[in-house]
Amino acid sequence: MKWLSYFYQGKQNFGLLKEEHAVIPAEKLFRDPPTDLLAYIESQPELLAGALAETGIPLTEIEITVPYLPPNNVIGIGKNYPEHVLEMGSKEDIPKEILVFTKSKNALVADKGVIKTHQNVTNALDYEGELAVIIGKAGSDLSEAEAVSHIFGYTILNDVTARDLQVKHKQFYIAKSLDNSCPIGPYIATKETFPDPEAPFSIRTLVNGEERQSGTTADMIFSIPRMIADLSKGHTLMPGDIIATGTPPGVGKGFNPPRYLKDGDEVAITISGIGTLTNFVQDQQ
To answer: Where in the sequence is the signal peptide annotated (predicted)?
Structure first.
């Protein structure tokens, strides 16, 4: 199943994607609908009998919005693909433990939304196509075996980064938390959508139709269960927490000369089994 949040006829709502072309609204799915998608993730009430047979609203009639505002900032995992580490530095930079940073939840932007260039503060805005994990159940001090049961689902995230600010401040938060610098969505695919929980996801990023990134989560240094287990040590993960799992090679900085985002660019990230997240780069007016 794939969930989404949307705006329709002056009202914010959420619902279930039907056959990739319509959405069944929450009021047709539940006897007592949760207030939003985050509330659903937190409570996960049962669907009404026959709910999936309900008629949906065509996607052409709605505006897809950010899935929800998470309870905490987005958790990011850096340097999680060996080839990405190499394009950014050297073999000595490959981490032996997960590299963790956070990204402001206020930076979230929806599918088809605008990525602001922030040309007043950066000249090196870069894209990073990533698989994001959505936590569905609170937990701390989890083992890798326990971690999978705490996953609600998966979505697509673009970890937009100002490379010059990353160097200037010698940390990630400022460079990765500019307004409109965290596209996410358009759907959250539940873990049950994927019959084989160990099957890798393919990740592909296009800029103006040109392939820049093509990778698979099979190449990650740290697996999803390992990341969740490590993050939960002495730290409670909450329903709705978002974990961005790292980006494969092919980012703009990895080219010579670098190929950073500019006004008018279109960035489309496709992840197998989830969909495509598309955003448009625009100078501030």
So the answer is: none
